[in-house]
Amino acid sequence: MKKVWLGMAALALMAASCSGNKSDDIVTPEVPKTPDWRVAGIIGVHLDDKGEASNIIDSTVFAYNPDKTFSFRETFQGETMDFYFKYTVGYDKNNIVNLTRKFGLTGTPKVITETHLLNNQIVRYFEPGYANTRYDSLVYENNKIVKVVFKHEDIRAHKIWEYTWQGDNVVEERAYMTNQGTLAMELVSIYKHTYSNVPNIFKSMTGLHLLREYIPNVQQLSANMVNTTTITDATGKLQYQFAHSRSMNDKNLPATDTVRQQTFGSFPGASSSVSHYKYIDLNK
């Protein structure tokens, strides 16, 4: 009887061993990841009056961190491509804490913007050393920026920008400046935007909206790509108009974006440029 039990135990062990081997041989197919396309580069070409490419070409490269947050933008500009600058976003636990700029390939990176945060939202950004005397304050409603107030130690330099959102897109911006005589805030410009159905390929570049090149770049946070932008003065007189036309690639992403700018008023004119986009899949 003892031999029978020993034989049965041996068979059970062999069966378990075989079963384990079969389980080890099973390969679970890997589920393909959904592509996460981001802009990797832009080649910008200025067009002449006949719509033909000129010698002025701008080249821009974008990079992202391993956690997919935006890292930096570097640009070569001009006919000889010798004008170079790079902007890098700094983080602390996924919160943007500064913006660094580097001029020239041999230049030294310099922090140009620092931030104050409240509840993980940027509520103030400023040049280093000017946190309380020269800064931009951000006002939010429903987690969207609706106002930027620029304060300066010289009250004559104060400015305000107000933003109207329609859904997830900024459809109007109003710019106010200080009247140099009365020191009162006066409306000076109105920006109006229309949008396409194309998702905004620049929205993920959070941090660059802190880069104020004349005006805050809040419109970059919109959900869709702009179709047209009109700029008027406070009375509604048209000053500038920008119109976009795009071609799409096989991934249904913008391949090219042609922008025509028209200037009105005392010195009317028009100019055009075309941007060629390249992409990277962050899920590869």
TrEMBL record:
Residues 1-22 form the signal peptide. Keywords: Signal. The keyword Signal applies. It comes from the Bacteria. This is DUF4595 domain-containing protein. It comes from Chitinophaga fulva.
